[in-house]
Amino acid sequence: MAYNKWGTEDEAKELSPSIQKMLSKMLGATKPTPSSKPLLAASNATETDVATIGAIVGSQYIAVDDEQRRPRARGKSYLDLLDWRMDDEVTAPDLVVAPGTEEEILEILHYCSHERIAVVPFGGGTSVVGGITPLPGGHRAVISLDLVRFDALEDVDEVSGLATLGAGLSGPHAEMKLAEHGLQLGHFPQSFPYATIGGFAATRSSGQNSAGYGRFDEMVRELTVVTPVGIIRPGHSSPATAAGPSIKEIFLGSEGLFGVITRVRVRVHPIPEDKQYEAFTFASFDKGVAALRAVEQAGSGPTVLRLSDEIESSVNLTSTDKIGESDAEENKGCLAITMFEGTKEHADRAHAETRALMLANGGRSVGEEPARQWEKGRFGAPVLRDSLMDAGALCETLETATDWSNVPRLKKAVSAAIAKELVDESAALIMCHVSHVYATGCSLYFTIVAGASDDPQQTARKWRAAKSAATEAMTLHGGTITHHHAVGTDHLPWMDKEIEVLGIDILQAVKQRLDPAGILNPGKTFDRGTSMPHSLRND
Amino acid sequence: MAYNKWGTEDEAKELSPSIQKMLSKMLGATKPTPSSKPLLAASNATETDVATIGAIVGSQYIAVDDEQRRPRARGKSYLDLLDWRMDDEVTAPDLVVAPGTEEEILEILHYCSHERIAVVPFGGGTSVVGGITPLPGGHRAVISLDLVRFDALEDVDEVSGLATLGAGLSGPHAEMKLAEHGLQLGHFPQSFPYATIGGFAATRSSGQNSAGYGRFDEMVRELTVVTPVGIIRPGHSSPATAAGPSIKEIFLGSEGLFGVITRVRVRVHPIPEDKQYEAFTFASFDKGVAALRAVEQAGSGPTVLRLSDEIESSVNLTSTDKIGESDAEENKGCLAITMFEGTKEHADRAHAETRALMLANGGRSVGEEPARQWEKGRFGAPVLRDSLMDAGALCETLETATDWSNVPRLKKAVSAAIAKELVDESAALIMCHVSHVYATGCSLYFTIVAGASDDPQQTARKWRAAKSAATEAMTLHGGTITHHHAVGTDHLPWMDKEIEVLGIDILQAVKQRLDPAGILNPGKTFDRGTSMPHSLRND
């Protein structure tokens, strides 16, 4: 993946004439956000660091050159990408290391604890919340610890539907290895092409097939984690247990604060024998939400269940090749996508029950084509962001979740908060969809396109204000501050509202026990508000 | 509930002639285990304790008399019940208190922290693992803190399917209050008639409808917990979140170690509009297990899915009124029970898909009657244990869970370990069933009936040896030490094998932060093996 955009150069997409027209109509005359290639801050690693860590991992697995440091300097949030379009020096890890075993990691952590060097674990580098920003937190240097060599499918239990995957395996690599056994993980977040198994666990990722296969944290049976005080394998040899508090649930979502995840044992399933698709439209978002709720609460079992609001449907975001072409029949009202997988019998039954509930709740079937189009283009949206930035637009996403009864209130509050900050001389497009459903509620995912200023610093300030207002609205109106993007550094300032001060105290106690020198991701340690969050770093 | 048996005097059942015949045939001549009424240890509470705590809660909510202390002195394990049949003095809480608000609990915990008094939270008193035994752990007295006054249905969100229940509500009371809103929790462990909402959460309980509605820990959205350092509400305003490690999962299964659970917000569902039943038989347990696995992995959605092994099926444990009558057609082979709930459409579809898979995997339908009988008698078994004890039999249950591929190995290992300790001059009946299924594995629940000695002390030693051997076998053969009975004091000696020493360190760190004086359930604090577990207390 290119260090300064989503995906590779090959994947770059030109904006279609229709979207260009839409942009200029909506946002007025825009100027491309300038491209730049800022310098990296010089490395603070000493010769002793390089020699010592090199001796642990082998000299071919350690680097201090800019080519290796640059792609590990930032994640893929809009603010991260903007950093590459400014002239300011960009902070970067001082050293990149790719250990091959847990024992090597343990040795590195010992050295770094002793030498006061910060360590930031690195998987796919797809964080959109500042999760891999190399903040030293008072330490004398920062190491980016790349899990790329943990790339094996370690074992497969086809009877139980379990497999152990190396933390450094990307989504596609994991699926390719499982496919050799006729198995599938079925975890398809938008970051799927680049993100890794370890990252999915560390961030409580959730994929687009979550209605069928659950969130990634629900798929995890066991983890291997290297902490500075030793190796632990939280999780169980059994599918469920009543043996006390869940140690595994402390490491899921821990984002490298307590240790380095190296292996993940996960639930897998046979590659579906059958796949069925159907799309529906609803007269309003609220009616569509009521239908999704009926389907989920009945337990009718779709694999994918999602709903776009009026604006997102009209922009036709379901097909990245057709964005802005809003004349299709399916783009009237709110578009809902359903997909069904499993045995033929199971897909038939789930489809029939779901279809009946969608129709009974006011849905109108528009056939399978929009659902197939959505599936085809579902990893394409992040690539478009780069093109939109080139065209002078601000483009970012954010997400939350809430109870079914609170969906209208939260959607309104978050949209209003964003609009208040972004709508000024130019308009802003604030689109929303539901893409993860639960018995008691659902996620809300917002995609925002607005005009950017000529000055990237000014645009960054504008976005930070909008993001801050949106997050504040979530905490005030019954939403979580993140449904599947994780905390990173961007969401740190709201963690006390999310888990209370006593919750932060508990995480601090665990942190102190496992990482007494505080070397792991020190810039994003949960504390009572004394951190320097990413979202404020230039203010 | 009577202090010295399960249920009330009214519920007592005489053993049927067929079971009496079976017992004498199997176990030889038995003498009734003697009945006794041992004295309670004198209370160590001081006048100041009574006056101070009485001033906090009101004098009508505090007691030091034996009538109040006795029912809170022991849980309902076989060893607990044996204690009441010996002549030795029985340890008991020194004081019983029933606070009415979180603020009162906080004041009590402050007083006890200062005065070095241990606190054991009390719900229904149904622990079968020594969970409520009043161990002082070096403190000068022990208080039993009864949650009985937290008995309200606090709020209901019918749209989202959420309700907040007081921790002291028993299973039936919670269901009655929800039924007024057309809702159901659907959590039916065998302890349902007496156990409480707070206890379900504190122990990670799992009910007989878990295939449909999940384990209790999965139903919990949010908890209110009073810790010695303050009140915390772990959980979220949203159905799922990626905002860091799960604080809620630290309190689920915490068994009163970190705080007192006072309220639980749970997922509820409409009272099912339809209910369908069907029973099947399989030629062998392994074939039956394969069928259950096929059903669960296909996602066909039964509400109840369970399977008895050959011995349990032949004893006809599915109907407590007919135990030992083994001539019925459905008792040849291994009996499986299925039940389906929901809308008529949903139950129809789940039933059809499940039925097809059961038949395709070698099952033979034996109609709905055995399933209906099972449902009718499903809370009756614990009552029979008292009658079996009266008749001179040792009777107890234990449980574990494992991966599907490991079921035969674990069942064999646990059965052999129990048999080795129990089968001597008399035979032992070791029965097993699967009652909780997951995509990757299932539970194994063992019911053991064997001959008891004339000397209860001798019988207790014999059972402790069998329980210890069974638990050791679980840790050696891929099982969890408890699937839904929790840790209590009985399972403490194996916690280091279950969650590793680092896992215990993590829980200790949390404990020290939340309960610095160590007053909460000090006798069962997870530590590195320095505790005095219940299972060894008379050795």
Automatic annotation (TrEMBL), chains A, B:
Keywords: FAD, Flavoprotein, Oxidoreductase. The record marks 306 as: Important for enzyme activity. Pfam families: FAD-oxidase_C (PF02913), FAD_binding_4 (PF01565). Substrate binds at residue 385. Residues 89-271 form the FAD-binding PCMH-type domain. Its cofactor is FAD. Belongs to the FAD-binding oxidoreductase/transferase type 4 family. This is FAD-binding protein. The active site is at residue 445. FAD binds at residues 121-127, 203-206, 255-261. Gene3D superfamilies: 3.30.300.330, 3.30.465.10, 3.30.70.3450, Uridine Diphospho-n-acetylenolpyruvylglucosamine Reductase, domain 2 (3.30.43.10), Vanillyl-alcohol Oxidase, Chain A, domain 4 (1.10.45.10). GO terms for biological process: lipid biosynthetic process. InterPro entries: Alkyl-DHAP_Synthase, FAD-bd_oxidored_4_C, FAD-bd_PCMH, FAD-bd_PCMH-like_sf, FAD-bd_PCMH_sub1, FAD-bd_PCMH_sub2, FAD-linked_Oxase-like_C, Oxid_FAD_bind_N. It comes from Corynebacterium anserum. It comes from the Bacteria. One of its GO terms (molecular function) is FAD binding. PANTHER family: ALKYLDIHYDROXYACETONEPHOSPHATE SYNTHASE, PEROXISOMAL (PTHR46568:SF1).
